Amino acid sequence: MYNKIIKLIIAIGIIAFAVYQFTEGYIGNGIALIFLSLVFIFLYFKNEFILLAFLRLRKQDFEGAKKWLNKIKNPESALVTKQQGYYNYLHGIMVSQDNMNEAEKYFKKAISLGLSMDHDLAMAKLNLAGIAFSKRRKQEAQKLLTEATKLDKQGMLTDQIKMMKQNMKQAVGPNQHYGAGGSVRSQKRRGR
Predict the structure, then answer these.
(1) Which InterPro entries does this one have (predicted)?
(2) Residue 6: is its pLDDT beyond 80?
């Protein structure tokens, strides 16, 4: 895998050669080289291994996605900040199947690094809300769920958000104190 700086250097070199081709009168070659340099510029902003991992996840192939992500050896030097966010986001999705503590760490890091799409940020916050709720941190879960609702402008996560809210309501049932409540008949039997 190429370092992010190497991709830019290759793109600049190709553009320089394209300018040379223009000056020599080979306009067709110059245009083709400009398009070739655009590929490297695109790969600077969108990492090829992250794109391939996303394609694997769409097919529910977690092992294949993990294989592509593992090809990124040093994310700090190979990826720009947003790509590092998606790297951690994808790891969080895959790890959430097995280890919630590690998934929480990945999702928090992805949110701190930033994700370019609001939908992805909403999904990360929704997953964090589920993890917080399972760890009995209801206030944090409620806050994250509210943030996820605000970020989900296109309504792609409305069903999941509704389901999470219902689960939170069901888990927080009325507190019953033994001996103080009950039906009218049971209170009469106890002499009240």
Answers:
(1) TPR-like_helical_dom_sf, TPR_rpt
(2) yes
Q: Could you tell me which of 93, 87, 56, 55 has the C-alpha nearest to residue 74? A: 87
**51, 123, 132, 118: which is closest to 92 by C-alpha?**
123
Report whether 161 contacts 149 (CB < 8 A).
yes
Amino acid identity for residue 152 in this structure: D
Mean pLDDT of 149-172: 79
pLDDT for residue 176:
47
Tell me the longest C-alpha to C-alpha distance in the chain.
Answer: 106
**Type of residue at 185:** R
pTM over 0.90: no
Task: Compute φ and ψ for 117, nearest 5 degrees.
Answer: -105, 135
Residue 185 backbone class (left: φ over 0; alpha: ψ -120 to 50; beta: rest): alpha
